[in-house]
């Protein structure tokens, strides 16, 4: 690991904390981001000369804050004095910085920064883009690539989203317990969105990048809120799903289903970390949707071969998830477990009532087609698979259904006499 | 004489490494390990999961469990055990037994992600 790489890593790691603190000082996202940029430039100059500081985040906050204050003062000579609220705590600049960083301030800083990106008026794609830009520090070009749109369009999208959140007036006081819990839930959902954006990305580099970033944010939240079982569950869920990524695609980029994956390619370190977090979460006896989904992923991870999967356990977990968070998609997933336990007829009966609500859902018709084929109802299976192809969102999804259709055609060919 | 060499680094940075970067570091370390093995100098070694996976047993009259790593600075690291268990609960049960025998301080339980057995006894 070279020094330059170490510094780049340290700057990325410190980013949420530093921008969160600078945002508290200046109450303006652009000022906070510019101050952070300036601090990073100075770090690149000073750290190689003087060695890295003991606490890089504290160093960056102090330097960034002073740089931004210089800027404000310079401006003040040309224009009117800045409004007082712009520099919220100039007076106590002698308070030792270390003391401020130790405080509970800092976790609320990071939470606030993440929470700002979860504004309910922002569509999901904009929440993700904003978080990746502000919290993770990805470049506009990198984010544009993840969303398969042009740089200029993404730039515009992020600028609009920023303008929207600037007007939102998220309070800067430390939140109360209930408000903090609400923020935490919103932020967890946003992090999982980032993860899913990565998980479903066709491009392998982007997949690793976004999934890795979401896991990093999960660990960050976990360090700030170490006793929250749902944050343990979320982080475990992402680790266990991402652990499968080396086995999820064939060399042509087509999806390999769980049953057919080479499980030796799964990442054992990520699995170990995911399982350890589930163990921790279980001790709290406060089940939640992320914990149950993590337990589902863990049940797959524990099976050395697909046929070793504990389907009764899967069915029980899906049933628990249905009770906690009723949704046709959860029932559809449960049908896969029911199929393994009780056969295609039972699974088909379970999903039949879901069709009106899942009439635009690719996976519904994929599963329906597979169950029908197994029951020998080839013509109906064909209709379901055609429907699935029409609904596919990626070439990988479509090509996966085409494999089913090919098999269907082979199955229907009468055996030669 | 045995020495324990304790490895410290910024976990944020280390866990931001890509798989390729991580593999490269492990490969370089592997070369050093081989040399030490040949010289008969290497005992068991372990790589730990990040502190977010840690649980701490605080040894009070009634020991209690805290999520997260041991964060106090007034106590010092004085030793460690490696135990082979099925679950965190089993590890905590062992830690409670140890606590009863040796009160005061705390035990941090950190899952091991990579365990390299003693090459002198497990060739």
Automatic annotation (TrEMBL), chain A:
<dbReference type="GO" id="GO:0003677">
    <property type="term" value="F:DNA binding"/>
</dbReference>
<feature type="domain" description="RNA polymerase sigma factor 70 region 4 type 2">
    <location>
        <begin position="114"/>
        <end position="164"/>
    </location>
</feature>
<dbReference type="InterPro" id="IPR013324">
    <property type="entry name" value="RNA_pol_sigma_r3/r4-like"/>
</dbReference>
<protein>
    <submittedName>
        <fullName>RNA polymerase sigma factor</fullName>
    </submittedName>
</protein>
<dbReference type="Pfam" id="PF08281">
    <property type="entry name" value="Sigma70_r4_2"/>
</dbReference>
<dbReference type="Pfam" id="PF20239">
    <property type="entry name" value="DUF6596"/>
</dbReference>
<dbReference type="InterPro" id="IPR036388">
    <property type="entry name" value="WH-like_DNA-bd_sf"/>
</dbReference>
<dbReference type="InterPro" id="IPR014284">
    <property type="entry name" value="RNA_pol_sigma-70_dom"/>
</dbReference>
<dbReference type="InterPro" id="IPR007627">
    <property type="entry name" value="RNA_pol_sigma70_r2"/>
</dbReference>
<feature type="domain" description="DUF6596">
    <location>
        <begin position="183"/>
        <end position="282"/>
    </location>
</feature>
<dbReference type="InterPro" id="IPR013325">
    <property type="entry name" value="RNA_pol_sigma_r2"/>
</dbReference>
<dbReference type="InterPro" id="IPR013249">
    <property type="entry name" value="RNA_pol_sigma70_r4_t2"/>
</dbReference>
<dbReference type="GO" id="GO:0006352">
    <property type="term" value="P:DNA-templated transcription initiation"/>
</dbReference>
<feature type="domain" description="RNA polymerase sigma-70 region 2">
    <location>
        <begin position="14"/>
        <end position="77"/>
    </location>
</feature>
<dbReference type="Pfam" id="PF04542">
    <property type="entry name" value="Sigma70_r2"/>
</dbReference>
<dbReference type="InterPro" id="IPR046531">
    <property type="entry name" value="DUF6596"/>
</dbReference>
<dbReference type="GO" id="GO:0016987">
    <property type="term" value="F:sigma factor activity"/>
</dbReference>
From TrEMBL, chain B:
<dbReference type="Pfam" id="PF03795">
    <property type="entry name" value="YCII"/>
</dbReference>
<protein>
    <submittedName>
        <fullName>YciI family protein</fullName>
    </submittedName>
</protein>
<dbReference type="InterPro" id="IPR011008">
    <property type="entry name" value="Dimeric_a/b-barrel"/>
</dbReference>
<dbReference type="InterPro" id="IPR005545">
    <property type="entry name" value="YCII"/>
</dbReference>
<feature type="domain" description="YCII-related">
    <location>
        <begin position="1"/>
        <end position="112"/>
    </location>
</feature>
<comment type="similarity">
    <text>Belongs to the YciI family.</text>
</comment>
């Amino acid at each position: 690991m070279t020094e330059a790489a170490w510094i780049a890593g340290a700057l990325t790691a410190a980013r949420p904390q530093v921008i969160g603190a600078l945002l508290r000082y200046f109450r303006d996202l652009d000022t906070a981001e510019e101050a952070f940029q300036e601090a990073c430039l100075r770090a690149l100059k000073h750290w190689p000369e003087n060695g890295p500081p003991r606490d890089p985040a504290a160093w960056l906050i102090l330097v960034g804050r002073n740089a931004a204050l210089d800027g404000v003062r310079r401006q003040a000579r040309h224009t009117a004095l800045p409004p007082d609220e712009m520099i919220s705590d100039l007076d106590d600049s002698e308070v030792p910085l270390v003391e401020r960083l130790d405080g509970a301030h800092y976790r609320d800083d990071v939470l606030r920064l993440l929470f700002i990106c979860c504004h309910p008026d922002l569509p999901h794609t904009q929440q993700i883009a904003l978080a990746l830009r502000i919290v993770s520090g990805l470049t506009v070009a990198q984010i544009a690539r993840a969303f398969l749109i042009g740089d200029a369009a993404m730039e515009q999208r992020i600028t609009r989203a920023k303008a929207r959140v600037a007007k939102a007036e998220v309070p800067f006081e430390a939140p109360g317990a209930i408000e903090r819990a609400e923020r935490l839930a919103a932020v967890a959902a946003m992090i999982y969105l980032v993860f899913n954006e990565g998980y479903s990305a066709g491009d392998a580099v982007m997949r690793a990048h976004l999934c890795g970033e979401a896991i990093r944010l999960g660990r960050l939240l976990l360090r700030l809120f170490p006793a929250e079982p749902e944050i343990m569950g979320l982080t475990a869920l992402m680790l266990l799903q991402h652990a499968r990524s080396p086995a999820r695609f064939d060399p042509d980029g087509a999806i390999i289903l769980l049953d057919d994956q080479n499980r030796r390619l799964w990442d054992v370190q990520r699995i170990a970390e995911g399982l350890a977090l589930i163990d921790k979460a279980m001790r709290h006896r406060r089940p939640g949707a992320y914990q149950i989904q993590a337990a589902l992923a863990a049940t797959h991870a524990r099976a050395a071969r697909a046929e070793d999967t504990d389907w009764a356990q899967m069915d029980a977990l899906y049933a628990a998830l249905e009770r906690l968070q009723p949704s046709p998609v959860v029932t559809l997933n449960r049908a896969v477990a029911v199929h393994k336990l009780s056969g295609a007829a039972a699974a088909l009966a379970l999903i039949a009532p879901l069709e009106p609500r899942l009439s635009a859902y690719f996976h519904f018709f994929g599963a329906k087609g597979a169950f029908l084929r197994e029951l020998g109802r080839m013509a109906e299976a064909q209709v379901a698979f055609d429907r699935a192809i029409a609904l596919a969102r990626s070439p990988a999804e479509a090509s996966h259904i085409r494999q089913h259709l090919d098999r269907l055609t082979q199955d229907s060919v009468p055996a030669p006499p | 004489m045995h020495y324990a060499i304790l490895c410290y680094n910024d976990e944020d940075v280390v866990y931001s490494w890509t798989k390729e970067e991580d593999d490269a570091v492990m490969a370089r370390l592997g070369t050093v390990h081989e040399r030490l093995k040949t010289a008969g100098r290497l005992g068991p070694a372990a790589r730990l999961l990040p502190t977010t996976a840690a649980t701490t047993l605080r040894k009070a009259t009634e020991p209690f469990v805290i999520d997260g790593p041991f964060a106090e600075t007034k106590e010092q690291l004085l030793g460690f055990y490696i135990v082979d268990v099925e679950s965190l609960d089993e590890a905590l049960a062992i830690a409670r037994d140890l606590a009863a025998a040796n009160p005061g301080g705390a035990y941090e339980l950190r899952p091991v992600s990579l365990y390299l057995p003693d090459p002198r006894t497990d060739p």
